[in-house]
Amino acid sequence: MIMENTPGIVAYCCEWGGYSSADQAGRLGIPLPTGIRVVEVRCVGQVDAGALIEPFLHRAHGVLLAGCRVERCHYLTGNIMARGRVDLAQRLLALCGVDPRRVRLAWLEAADGEGFARETDDFTRTLAPLGHPVPGEDTALSLMAALMASEAEKLRWLAGVGYDLKKTGNVFGRVLSEEEFSRALDEVVRDAFLQARLLLLLKQSPRTSRELAEAADEDVGRVSGVITLLEKEGKVRHHSSVDGLPRFAAEGI
Ligand code: FES
């Protein structure tokens, strides 16, 4: 089994497709790009969006999900679910200013060593010109916000049911087009990301809505709306006042 521990690409490989292929590449002596860290999982469907984002906080350059081909998943739809999670992670990464091409999904036959080498080689070539994804503190804070946002209940639910909404429709039988689903998901992703970002900024120091808007480079009206919501949910509390304006602090994060 060829496996490098140097930072670079984290490759989540399902036991049946990706891992058996990586293993076969090792057995046959097929060279793989250096810097790949293979993480064996039962099925790529068990890898959530947060696990696709977190490696970037630990200096990974790219994250690969290597699963089985369509209709070959041993858990039936794990590879389809993985597609939704990759989509979600890519949208969140784009909001952090991180190139979404840094996360990739590959579908492989069992024990396809050549295929695994081809996929990892191609991915390495895509990543090479992109450089390091976390150049500064601001990106690191955004990545932490993306990680937090990926845990938001509404977001997880929407990413999970996306395939059904596009194929069989909602409870009223209405099937969503790709564009409709994409728009709905985008809105929820943006809201969850902003909420997480504001909470992290408030954890750093108490701020007014205006100070938050400046720090987050957001519209002050939108920030005030989110703060009101977070206050109702008990995630933000009034901390102090400055020039008659309330300063807020984050609760319990
Ligand atoms: Fe390979 Fe599910 S077992 S993708």
Short note summarizing the structure:
This protein folds into two domains: 122 residues, Rossmann fold, CATH 3.40.50; 99 residues, Winged helix-like DNA-binding domain superfamily/Winged helix DNA-binding domain (Arc Repressor Mutant, subunit A), CATH 1.10.10.10.
Profile the largest sheet: 4 strands, parallel
Distance separating the two termini: 41 Å
Low-confidence stretches: 1-7
Rg from alpha-carbon coordinates? 20 Å
General shape: globular
What percentage of the residues does DSSP assign to strands (E)?
A: 15-25%
Number of helices: 9
List of distinct ligands in this structure: FE2/S2 (inorganic) cluster
What fraction, in percent, of the residue positions are helical? 40-55%
What is the annotated CATH architecture of the largest domain?
3-Layer(aba) Sandwich
The average pLDDT is 91
SSE arrangement, N to C: EHEHEHEHHHHHHEE
Q: So what's the CATH class of the largest domain?
A: Alpha Beta
| Strands side by side in the biggest sheet | 2-1-3-4
